[in-house]
Amino acid sequence: MTPSEFTCLLYELRGHVAVVSLNRPERRNALNPRAYAEIEAAFRAAARDDEVRCVVVTGVDPAFCAGEDVKEMMTGEPRHGRKVVRPTPTPAAMAAIECDKPVIAAVNGVAVGWGMELSLYADIRIASEHAKFAELFIKRGLISDVGSLWKLPAIVGPAKAAELLFTGDMIDAQEALRIGLVSYVVPHAELMPRAMALAERIAANPPLALRYMKEGLRRGTYGDPTEIGGWAIDTIYKLFQTEDHREGVRAFLEKRTPNFTGR
Questions:
Q1: Tens digits of per-residue pLDDT, 46-78?
Q2: Which CATH number is 3-187+207-254 given?
């Protein structure tokens, strides 16, 4: 799949900066299998293109990404449309993780569930004043993907990561700034200009040195995501089969308090 075939994303090269925009605004940029496949393809395309020196990922207003499309989750199928889950991280996640160009997330609105995961795959996060973040997986009877298990404790500290993951609570942009989840909070209208200005400053540096700098930071700060990613995706598959997962999704759609039973 090439960027010209995308229907759920916009992919634009601005100088040496690839801008990837989730483009399902009517669903608050919620992700379906097609969107996951396009995210994977976008990051692979950026990594292959020698003209790309930095990537900015954002969403078409009003949201950054509202996570998975909950209506499609009601089927109970394994995530991302895969009926057999391999013991490896999500392909979209691995494409983002393996992208050797610096990545900036310009978080323009709600970033929850896999939307927050996507922001965590970035090296730098800039938030609009409208941004909100939540690890909602626990409320759906699931665990998070590799992003939160691998990167979140190093970004905000183990205790704060545990609080966010165990409660599923939502935080606003100012709280995200306070705990170090984002580097800046800016007025909404200034988000993309600010992100692009930073991306262009980064892209002005030597491309090979940038790639090795990113690899060094990954090795020194986060380590290898493969083992924990494989465990996570296998566990998510198991949890998708549980009644608690189905109850969590039903309760969300019916706007009621869930009744979890441990089954």
A1: 999 999 999 999 999 999 999 998 776 555 444
A2: 3.90.226.10
